[in-house]
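Title: Prediction job returns without error message
Component: structure pipeline
Severity: low
Priority: P3
Assignee: unassigned

Description:
Job completed but the reporter wants confirmation the result is attached to the right record. Sequence as submitted:
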Amino acid sequence: MSEDFEHANFFRRCSGVFLLALCMTMLAGTPARGDLPSILEPPSSSSMITLINTTGPLDFCGEPVPLDNPEVRERLEKEFLFALWNRPQVILWMKRSGRYMPYIEEMLKQNNMPMDLKYMAIIESSLTSHLISSKGARGSWQFMEGTGKKYGLKIDSDVDERRNFFSSTRAAINYLKKLHEKFGSWTLAAAAYNMGEEGLKTEMLLQNTNNYYYLYLPMETQQYILRAISAKEILSNPERYGFKLSKEDIYPPLQFDRVELVCDQETPIYLVAQAAGTYFKVIKDLNPEIRRHYLAKGKYDIMVPRGAALGFQARYEGLVKKWLAERKEHVYVVKKGENLSSIASHFDVPLPALLIWNHLESKKQVKPGDLLLIYPEERKSEK
C-alpha cells in the first residue's frame, strides 16, 4: 500500500467515523446515555500525544517491543493514533469482545498459548464473520481457502467454515501452534500468519535476521504486530483512553444449542428454522458458514437458539415429511414458447427466487417438458 493511498484511506475512514459518531450521538438522545458523546469524541491533539507517548515496557506474547528504536516507536504510534481516532470501531471491539473472547481465551488456555494471540482476531476482522479481504481471505480469522482446508475447514459451494467463528478459531489455534513450532517465536508466528510462512522464511534468509522488528516486510505485516499491541493496550486499559462502557453495554456470550441434522436430500433452511421455532435469518446468523438457502445432502452440526434443541428432531422430521409430500403440488411443466422470465411473471414471483428454487443460472434455457418448482406467495409469511 502506498503512503499516499494510505493517507487517503485514513481520511476516508475518518469521515465515516464522524458520520457514525454523529448518528450514534443523535440516537443516544437521553441524559442516561450522556457519556456516549464524550466516548465518541476523539481526544485533543495534546492529549493524544500524551496517550501514545508510552515509556513501556510493552510486549507481545511476552516478547519485548524495542521502543528504543525510533522507527518501531513511530510505527506503534501510528497504529495507536488510527485506533484512538476511530473510536466507534474501538467501542465495537469492546462490545463484541464479550460475545467472542471467552471462547478464544478458553481455547488458548487449553492449548497453553499466550493470551495476546486473541488480539489477532480483532485486527483481522474486528470480530466479524462475513469480512472478505481483497485477496479472498474470509471470516473472523481471515483464512485463505488453501490454508483453511489444510487446517480442517470445510470449504465448498455449500459450506464455508471460515465464516464459522468456532471452527475457524480452532483452525487458527492449530495453525499458530504449527507456526510457533517452525519459527520459535510467537511474534514471528503472527507475522507468518499474516504474510505466509514461506514468504517470511524467505525474507529472514535473505535479510539474515530473525528479529521481526528489524525485518523489511510487506507494509501490512510491518504494521500487523504493532496493530495487535495497540489493540491490546487500549482494550486492557480502556478508561485510560476514554472508553467507559458498563457491563450492560457489552454483548453477552452467544447462547445456543447444537443439533445434529441428517439431510437425506437437499433441504430448505426455512424448515430448520421452523423446527427451531425461529426465523431463517436467525439460523443463518448462528451458522454463517451455510452459503445458500438450502442444506445439501449430508450431515450437519447446526446451532439453534438456546432451548430449541428440546423436541427439535421430531418437529424437523415432521416438517420435512410434510414438505416432501407437498412438493408435487408445486411442480410446473414448462410449455412451448415459455422461458424463465415469462414463467416468473406469470406466477408473479421474482425471477431470482425461481432460479434459487430450481438451482438454475440466469442464462439457463428451459424447454417444453422441463419441470420447475414454483411456490405460491402465501407461504412467505411463515417462519
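Comment from assignee: result matches the submitted record. The CA atoms of residues 3 and 9 lie 10 Å apart.
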